[in-house]
Write a structure and sequence with these properties.
Order of helices and strands: EHEHEHEEHEEEEEHHHHH
Number of strands: 10
Largest sheet: 3 strands, mixed
Shape: globular
Helix content: 25-40%
Radius of gyration: 19 Å
């Protein structure tokens, strides 16, 4: 199962190979959980779930897990943090505990998106885009935030793939960017915005206060 905003750009045969032993495969969000580098990463996965529901793979042995997931989604889909519910997604945290054979797809090139910019680091090495210096990108989750981060150059190395995605949709008479009226290129391309994003002044200040408190 994939969300309609997921776009495959690399070889994914290894996913089928992993399904020879696993019954269900889940993709982590891979948020940056170091609160002193990225203040909301840890709390985001605690609110929204360890795994992203945009991509799930299963074979016949995974049917009990899928039926349970479908059942709880039918029972209640909502966003109620006090109940530990986030749409259909937070329920996935339970699958590795209750359903043997549920495994984690640990390839960091899978489900690239805005939430893993820091932990699944994109770099050009010898003319090739690699994730964490080793892994080739496999598929990108083009959520609205992901697209905005590409357009505002925070995730600029994914821009060629966004262009491919836009072209593929245009071939089907679909305009991906027509609803991006709030995107202001002048704001995001400004030097002030770029400096602010790189420095993350508020996060650095929190880190300083934490280290100061440790010494007291």
């Amino acid at each position: 199962f994939t969300d309609p905003d997921i776009f495959f750009i690399g070889n994914f045969d290894f996913i089928f190979s992993q399904l020879d032993s696993a019954s269900v495969l889940l993709t982590p969000h891979w948020n940056n959980i170091n609160v002193f580098q990225f203040e909301d990463g840890l709390f985001s996965i605690m609110r929204n779930g360890l795994f992203n529901a945009g991509f799930i793979a299963a074979n016949k042995k995974g049917l009990p897990a899928l039926l349970w997931w479908a059942g709880v989604c039918h029972y209640k889909i909502d966003r109620q943090p006090e109940l530990g519910i986030y749409d259909d997604q937070k329920y996935l945290d339970i699958l590795p505990l209750e359903f043997p054979g549920t495994e984690i797809l640990r390839h960091p090139g899978c489900n690239l998106a805005s939430w893993n910019i820091d932990s699944s680091k994109r770099e050009m090495i010898d003319g090739k885009l690699l994730i964490n210096k080793t892994f080739e990108p496999v598929f990108i989750h083009f959520t609205k935030d992901t697209i905005i981060n590409i357009l505002n150059k925070n995730d600029k190395l994914l821009h060629p793939y966004l262009d491919e995605y836009i072209k593929a949709l245009q071939d089907e008479n679909l305009d991906l960017l027509k609803d991006f009226n709030e995107f202001d290129p002048a704001k995001y391309n400004s030097s002030i915005y770029s400096i602010k994003h790189k420095l993350r002044i508020r996060t650095r200040f929190k880190r300083f206060l934490f280290k100061l408190a440790e010494k007291l």
